Write a sequence for this structure.
């Protein structure tokens, strides 16, 4: 059954939706120019009233993560792009700092209790989660935004919450069964690990009460083979949750599972061609640029997320007119790599690997230095300890054929010992650059 959080907004015709976005964008632009020294400098000489069309928006300068990091280094703790004083923060989060320095993000009481609630309510209604559900969260909370907002919103909608932190994976699985959990959240990598572990220790997840698995943090729910693996291991529907610490959560999958909806009532999304920087048309891959239209703490305008997306503006079967990201987030611009004359998305390799039953779900991509003449190395594991040499040779041959035909490169495939590749509880790191 289709349920909508705000059907009057989720079904707006495209023209009226864009009119609303432009109005909110002008208001937000006026606000940041008043409250943020960073944006006063960036938009110097530009009047918010001059922004009358989407083309006007596209002429404005971008905001980048590097600029935000520099701002925080020069104006600690939150940088001069923030629109609030430090003592106005009700919650603080920070990014993982994969580039070396984490980005701190403060949230006011309004952002945490109203705007986050609004955003995640779209998710809950999209997935079909309601007050009859029991949600299990199998991880320890920290400074990462992770599942804080989802849990808080579930609590507000009277969903029962079972915390799963401070436990072994085995005990988390037993807790899921003992508490009768109907919803479980996690990264695709850890959810798959739990599913495989359940099989090893004799826990019947497909026979449990779990009906919904929400995954976030990595491409997964929109990678066909990965979604299939999750749904078979758990006997439940796997739904996509997309967001980031600095821009917050902006994309959810509906019950039709035909792409990930953007919350266009609260964000203005753009997709830019990777080579020209021009607007990417429907069905074309581009880099996602987002403007947060409702945040009051750190509202980012024209923020380059680094996410690669493919927009679909057609009305969904669920009735929503919010645009969909076909395939969700396809990958990261910094994860995509150029090799052998082609652009390669790790999620595409993942899809081929997880389509082959003789392989385990783990893998590693080893990218050799440019100009060495070496092939891309893909490390895979047998799915079981007793896999025959003949079966693995056949599987490797089929996999290489898939990659050659679809990606247009010929990789070198190394079969490593079962269980030797690293398993991750959080975001997986499967790409190694030599």
């Amino acid at each position: 059954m289709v349920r909508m959080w705000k059907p009057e907004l989720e079904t707006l015709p495209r023209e009226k939706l864009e009119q609303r976005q432009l109005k909110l964008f002008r208001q937000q632009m006026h606000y940041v120019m008043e409250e943020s020294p960073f944006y006063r400098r960036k938009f110097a000489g530009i009047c918010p009233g001059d922004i009358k069309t989407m083309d006007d928006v596209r002429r404005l300068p971008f905001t980048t993560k590097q600029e935000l990091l520099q701002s925080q280094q020069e104006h600690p703790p939150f940088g001069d792009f923030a629109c609030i004083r430090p003592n106005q923060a009700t919650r603080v989060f920070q990014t993982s700092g994969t580039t070396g320095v984490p980005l701190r993000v403060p949230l006011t009481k309004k952002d945490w209790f109203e705007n986050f609630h609004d955003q995640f309510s779209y998710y809950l209604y999209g997935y079909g989660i309601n007050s009859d559900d029991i949600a299990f969260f199998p991880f320890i909370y920290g400074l990462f935004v992770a599942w804080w907002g989802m849990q808080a919103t579930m609590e507000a909608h009277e969903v029962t919450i079972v915390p799963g932190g401070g436990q072994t994976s085995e005990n988390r699985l037993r807790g899921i069964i003992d508490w009768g959990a109907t919803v479980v959240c996690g990264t695709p990598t850890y959810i798959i690990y739990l599913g495989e572990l359940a099989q090893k220790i004799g826990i019947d997840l497909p026979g449990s009460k779990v009906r919904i698995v929400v995954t976030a943090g990595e491409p997964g729910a929109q990678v066909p083979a990965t979604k299939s693996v999750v749904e078979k291991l758990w006997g439940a529907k796997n739904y996509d949750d997309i967001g980031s610490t600095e821009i917050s959560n902006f994309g959810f999958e509906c019950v039709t599972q035909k792409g990930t909806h953007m919350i266009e009532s609260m964000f203005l999304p753009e997709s830019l061609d990777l080579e020209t920087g021009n607007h990417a048309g429907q069905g074309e891959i581009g880099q996602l640029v987002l403007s947060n239209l409702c945040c009051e703490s750190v509202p980012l305008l024209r923020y380059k997320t680094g996410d690669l997306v493919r927009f679909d503006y057609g009305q969904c079967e669920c009735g929503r007119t919010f645009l969909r990201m076909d395939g969700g987030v396809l990958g990261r611009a910094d994860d995509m790599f150029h090799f052998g004359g082609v652009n390669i998305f790790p999620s595409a390799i993942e899809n081929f690997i997880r389509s082959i039953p003789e392989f385990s779900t783990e893998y590693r991509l080893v990218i050799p230095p440019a100009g060495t003449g070496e092939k891309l190395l893909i490390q895979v594991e047998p799915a079981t300890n007793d896999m025959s040499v003949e079966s693995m040779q056949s599987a490797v041959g089929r996999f290489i054929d898939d990659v050659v035909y679809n990606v247009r490169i010929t990789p070198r495939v190394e079969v490593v010992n079962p269980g030797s590749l690293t398993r991750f509880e959080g975001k997986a790191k499967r790409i190694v650059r030599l």
User: Anything to note?
Assistant: The chain has twelve helices and 20 strands.
